[in-house]
Amino acid sequence: MEEKPAQRARLPLNGLGVSTFVLILCGLTGVSSNQVVVQRNVNAVLGKNITLSCIIEVGSNLSLTQSSWERNLPSGTITLAVFNPVFGTSYSPDYGKRISFVSPSQRDATITLEGVGFADVGSYTCKVATFPLGNTQASTFVNVLVEPKVYVSAGSTPLLEGGDESLVAICIAERGRPEAEVSWESDLSGQSVTQTHDDANGTTSVQVSYMWRPQSYAQGKTLTCVVRHPALQTEFKIPYTLNVQFAPIVSVEGKDRSWYVGQKNVKFTCDAKANPPTQRFTWIRLDGPMPEGVEISNNILAFIRPLKRNDSAIYRCEVMNKIGLRGEDVKFWVQGSGEEPSLEISENVTAVLGEDVYLSCRYLGESQIQSAEWKRQTSKSVFERLAGFSNDSSSYPESVTNLTVQVKVSSVEAEGEYICEFKSEDEFFSRSVFVTVLGRPDVQILVREDVINNTSYQSVTCFADGGRPPPQISWVVGSLLPSGYPFTVSVRESRPSNGLLNLSSVLRFPTHLQDEDNVTCVIQHPTLPHPKLATVRVKTYTRPNVTIKAEMVQQRGSYFWVVSCISSGGRPDTDISLALNATVGLQAEKDSHLDVQRLSVHLPAAEYDGRSLTCMFSHPKFSHPEERITTLPTFYLHKVETDSSSFQDAEYLELQEGETDVISLQITSNVPRYSVICTKNNGPLPEDVELIGQNLTFLAGVKPLHAGLYECHFSYLHLNAVLRFNVTVKPLPLQAVPPTISVGLRSEDGRWVMECVAAEAVPAANVSWLVSQSVSEEFWFNSSSYNGSHTVRGVLLVPFCSPWELTAKCVIHHPAFELPENRSITLPLCARPNITINTSTEWKDGRKYTKVCCSVISVASAADIRWLAEDNNNISNVMQTELLSEGVISAWSSVDLPSSLLSGQNITCAVKHPSLETPAERTIHIPEHKPPLLSVTVMRQQDTPLWQAVCDCEGECFRTNLHWVLPKRARPETPPLAEFEDNGIKATLTYQFPLALHEGQNLTCMYQFDHRISENRTVQIPKYYITSVKILNHSSLLSGRHSDQRVVFGLRVQKNHLNQRILLGVEGNVPEYSLHCQRRDGSTVEVDESAMTLQDEGLYSCRASFYHHTASMTIQVEVTDEDEQFMQIMVICISSVTAVLLILGVVLLVFCKKDKTTKYKEQESVSALTSLMQEPGSSEVKKPGAAEDKGIAQLDNYSIVLDVKSAL
């Protein structure tokens, strides 16, 4: 037995040239490295697609056998997708429609998963099988993210300046997974309050409220809600504009100037900033009424005359809105005449708390100064004197025109207005300056570390205490501004009683997500010439590089696997463990050097054959423990199976006699070494055949005695493999005889038959056909032998018809030919089919149908006809064929559909035929199916009481589709009678009815030309009425208007006038009417055009009618004489005038005698007067005797009765 190292060799399977037989033998002294690279974590958005990458780094000495993706479920492991370089791809039925490889290859097993849901959360493993190393895998964890819904809402109460801390706005990120990071960005000094709520499916809603004490300076400024979430590509920002309501902030333009006597065009403009807007401006003078010559126009106070000295006073502008009232004072001091101011004073001064400030004031005039002082107004009417002098004071300054004082700023109460005053004998000078007090902040910075749920967090707090106004605090991490996740910034402020502000800002972040080792707090404030920086060092983590490594070593004659878990470059140290069911006594070795950690274990190669080992790495920089998996190879030793395997598991190998051949032996193996022994026919090898390395060598050439069964036994420990191959020796070739070649062409059963014959050849020739175009073809070959010569016949069958000019070439190979011989046959082109298409229409059961026919005349086989609509959908059809003559076939297909379905569309006939490269199409346009034109009229008929409705239909009309639609409540018991006139182009439908049946209703004529489409026209039947018959002549109502009696009109006519006429009319809307009149005795009276001719007096009755509408009236006619009537009128008039005059005379006499008569006489007079109202002969009227009172004997009493009878 000979020990040999593992080698690779090849053995060709043909018998030409060097003869070899292929087996593969691969021996390894170590495990070559191959790496599966996947993403550790993949975040997927709910409902969207994700890509799981798997890149295979295969060494040059390895080849990919198979790659796959698996998923670990509680029920077990399932295989999702498999890629094999030979057999292609395969997918799990549960994921077949959702999962696919992106571009499968030996180096890429990346897959795409569509429509990700919550059920897809978990670990996915990319497993790779390589030869000869075995299996290697890596896992990735898929987490499903849910994009939150974000919105911002205002607080429940308005923001009022000076109020308590209020809720400004709420930012809500609803139902995110994981929970969104929500924060407010603003330069205000408010604070954020965060609340979270867990929802279904592991989602969380986050609500962040912004609390702040409202101040007017922030009106119109913007708060920005910033939402960060892994499902969002960028930060999501929603601005919110502040609306702070405050009382007016008043300022006066021109108040800081100097004024002098005689100055002109002096005015003050009052401005105010307010929310809501200002409602009113008011100017007042505090010490009294406004002087003359002052004009106030809304917010402007103007002196329309030159200034006087007594104009000096304090003027106030008051402004009001809905929130409140505020004012601004103008200290208006008018100095002596001149164009230049008399005082030079410091501009508005800014002082720092704890330092001194100098206030300078100089008098520039020529007057003799009597006194000067600095004072400060502590309230509206109280002033505090700070420094100064006067003529009667004991101390006197060196310069009476320069009054400069030093003020120690010890508190914020020093802020305010300071007034400088100079007095001379004749004049008074005053100016003011405003001192603003600032507080310089004291800065400190602290770092604190917290551990929450095994996660380290660092909080850097920057204090800026004692600032005024509030300082601005910002952060710099490394050299960048911390914006967004994982940084959060919160600001808190407090206001002690000294009027200053203590401000603190906290920058918080997880230690494992921040890589910079220093954090800088930047404070900006007006008291600082440059921003103040406070830097502090913070703890940082570094992500380690982790890997697993397996190497085979030989110790004391045995082989061991050394598996190492390696972590390098990490801070802090990585927690490493090895998942292994170790045998008793197996120990792991730990080693740390510089920043490299290693955990190693020695495993016997025989015991851990094919085992999978997992290294677990835990580190703060890892979101979850990292895994590195390797599978130790399984040793194998076996031969390579080939397609030529046959008799008794042996390969047949033919060698040429006399050739010096070498057979290379190869097997598939991954063992470090093996031994091999070869035999022939269960005996030793022939003397001139030796095994040299991997090659079985024939030293003196191949001889016939070398034929036989060879066996080679390969072994390593308990592994064995046997390679068997049967060697035959091919004798030297005979003398070649070239064939006789002939070709022929004929048609048979609709196909061309081409025959190629290579006859009387030694050895037999090889015959084949080549066709110039891709057509449906069929081959068959046969051969025969006679006296040692061979004849080979090759037949080619092709379709009789082809769209191309077809050339077939017969190729003959034979050893006697240096080059192959060939013979060609060219077939003619096939005639193109003749295609026609036409259309026709017909009516069936009230519907119009369109029939489209497509006919094709072609040679050979019948054409295939299909119908296509505009949307490329197939239309069902019936196809028929007919043999016209020898070789000519007619095929036709028709489509018969309702015209409404094909209206306005293009119908295409698609024809397939062997003579056409692509289907031929013929398109025909179906005219648009237009609805008929309907018109409806209604009319009265002359000789019948019925009305008639006529419906005319023009166009493509079918009489059975035309009908009337009558009102439901007015439908008669029997259907309406209809008459039709139908000639295909025009149809008429009539309907007769009494007016009373449909009066005031609508009649509809409807044409139903499809089950879903209809056309209709509607006509309205007029509604008539007659209320009464009226007399157009002058008449009077005698009776019946307010009683149950009939209405009777009275009419007077002139005597002795012939053919007098009474004109009659009708109140109503009837177009015409018939009038019938008769006397009381029933005789008829002549009526002509609504006029009745009178013959004598009496009672007449007249009746007007229109169909079922009627009205009647009664007329009483009296005949009068004109002269008699005139005399009656004269008598009535004279009597009436006389009566009136007498009544007036009596009334005058009664009033004249009232004071002279006695009570008795008054009663008598009243009685006498009353008697005038009684009828003659009444017993109640008595004339008193003359003896009762002689004084009134001369007064006579009369009773006058006017009785006028008249017919009027």
TrEMBL record:
Transmembrane segments: 12-31, 1126-1151
Keyword Transmembrane helix: yes
Domain Ig-like: 47-143, 148-239, 248-321, 341-436, 441-537, 833-925
UniProt subcellular location: Cell junction, Adherens junction; Cell membrane
Membrane topology: Single-pass membrane protein
Signal peptide boundaries: none
SUPFAM superfamilies according to UniProt: Immunoglobulin (SSF48726)
Keyword set, alphabetical order: Cell adhesion, Cell junction, Cell membrane, Disulfide bond, Glycoprotein, Immunoglobulin domain, Membrane, Repeat, Signal, Transmembrane, Transmembrane helix
GO biological process, alphabetically ordered: cell adhesion
Cellular component terms per the entry's GO annotation: adherens junction; plasma membrane
A family per Pfam: V-set
Main localization category: other
Keyword Transmembrane helix: yes
UniProt xrefs under InterPro entries: CD80_C2-set, Ig-like_dom, Ig-like_dom_sf, Ig-like_fold, Ig_C1-set, Ig_sub, Ig_sub2, Ig_V-set
Highest rank taxon of the organism: Eukaryota
Gene3D superfamilies with a match to the protein in the record: Immunoglobulins
Family according to the record: Belongs to the nectin family.
Protein name: Nectin cell adhesion molecule 3
